[in-house]
């Protein structure tokens, strides 16, 4: 592996960008990023491309090259409005598929095709068809963390940011919600609606236990605990607040807790800490191996070679798009 190009000139040119992340990236690490950052900014112009980055991306991606950042819901909404010819999705595959569904005339690239998701992997379109046969007439809500083929079999999609609202909007006493068992249980507890679910779990959030939260509180007096609803209900019950990644960021911005822990993927704390130096972030670190497949070097390569293009079979795209659009209309 060759070392990245670096020179004092490059350091000077990229100093304003390094300034954005200096509180979370040691200066000794910046030479490993600077050349790729500069190349990506140039390639975005040459390729008429924008980069959409999820809140779990590392800070040099999130703060230095991304044009649009957010949770799954915000990225879906924003993808629809992109006018540039190319969208690079710095996130996981289902997010790139959702962007393609919502803005089909654009070229959508994912820098590493292996950036998957344990939830998306947990269920197939055939599984959804079997559930529909087994529970005729029960509406099927599918989490966006699924393949387009699974979305195509469902009535409506949801994200962690709108799950409760979507389930309530159906006005049904019983709903099938797939594939995240914990998200479904958390929504059922909040709404009182009976939910039939699936045994899918996020491999990052399922690692947190109620005992972890109690130990964190014991070790850090005054700690405010914010948890993602992909955590088990017993973990959410130990938290002060539960919400999507964007809702957690909003909570920090609005309440400015002196000391906080974000019970979620750990790059997010770095990204939020950059914006809130006054807040102390306690950081147990659970990384998502899929999100972490995306790097500056791979984004650069993606823009250089225009790979890997995400395509969706037309027969799947039409019903999958309908399910996502129904969600956005609620
Ligand atoms: P949100 O950003 O929509 O809360 O999703 C979290 C997540 O795990 C995405 O992979
Ligand atoms: Fe999937 Fe969990 Fe990784 Fe998000 S954090 S991509 S839900 S495995």
UniProtKB/TrEMBL annotation:
Gene3D superfamilies: NadA-like. It is an enzyme of class 2 (transferase). It is found in: Cytoplasm. Belongs to the quinolinate synthase family. Type 2 subfamily. GO terms for cellular component: cytosol. GO terms for biological process: 'de novo' NAD+ biosynthetic process from L-aspartate. It comes from Enhydrobacter aerosaccus. [4Fe-4S] cluster binds at residues 117, 202, 288. The lineage of its organism: Bacteria, Pseudomonadati, Pseudomonadota, Alphaproteobacteria, Hyphomicrobiales. It catalyses: iminosuccinate + dihydroxyacetone phosphate = quinolinate + phosphate + 2 H2O + H(+). InterPro entries: NadA, NadA_sf, Quinolinate_synth_type2. Keywords: 4Fe-4S, Cytoplasm, Iron, Iron-sulfur, Metal-binding, Pyridine nucleotide biosynthesis, Transferase. GO terms for molecular function: 4 iron, 4 sulfur cluster binding; metal ion binding; quinolinate synthetase A activity. Iminosuccinate binds at residues 54, 72, 143-145, 160, 228-230, 245. This is Quinolinate synthase. Its cofactor is [4Fe-4S] cluster. Its EC number is 2.5.1.72. Binds 1 [4Fe-4S] cluster per subunit.
């Amino acid at each position: 592996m060759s070392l990245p190009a670096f020179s004092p000139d490059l350091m000077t040119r990229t100093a304003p960008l390094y300034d954005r992340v200096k509180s979370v990236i040691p200066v000794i690490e910046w030479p490993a990023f600077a050349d790729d950052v500069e190349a990506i900014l140039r390639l975005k112009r040459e390729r008429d491309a924008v980069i959409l980055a999820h809140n779990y991306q590392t800070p040099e991606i999130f703060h230095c090259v991304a044009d649009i950042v957010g949770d799954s819901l915000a990225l879906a909404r924003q993808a629809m409005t992109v006018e540039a010819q190319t969208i690079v999705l710095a996130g996981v595959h289902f997010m790139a598929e959702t962007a393609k569904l919502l803005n089909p005339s654009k070229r959508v690239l994912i820098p590493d095709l292996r950036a998957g998701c344990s939830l998306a992997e947990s269920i197939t379109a055939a599984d959804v068809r079997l559930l529909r046969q087994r529970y005729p007439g029960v509406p099927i809500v599918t989490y966006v963390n699924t393949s387009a083929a699974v979305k195509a079999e469902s009535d409506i999609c949801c994200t962690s940011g709108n799950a409760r609202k979507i389930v309530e909007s159906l006005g049904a006493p019983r709903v099938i919600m797939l594939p995240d068992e914990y998200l479904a249980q958390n929504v059922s507890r909040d709404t009182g609606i009976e939910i039939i679910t699936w045994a899918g779990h996020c491999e990052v959030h399922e690692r947190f236990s109620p005992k972890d939260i109690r130990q964190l509180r014991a070790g850090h007096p005054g700690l405010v605990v914010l948890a993602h609803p992909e955590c088990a209900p017993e973990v959410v019950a130990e938290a002060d607040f539960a919400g999507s990644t964007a809702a957690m960021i909003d909570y920090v911005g609005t309440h400015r807790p002196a000391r906080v822990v974000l019970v979620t993927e750990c790059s997010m704390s770095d990204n939020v800490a950059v914006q809130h130096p006054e807040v102390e972030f306690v950081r147990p670190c659970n990384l998502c191996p899929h999100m972490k497949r995306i790097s500056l070097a791979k984004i650069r390569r993606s823009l250089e070679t225009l790979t890997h293009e995400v395509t969706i079979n037309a027969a799947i795209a039409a019903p999958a798009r309908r399910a996502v659009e129904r969600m956005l209309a609620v």
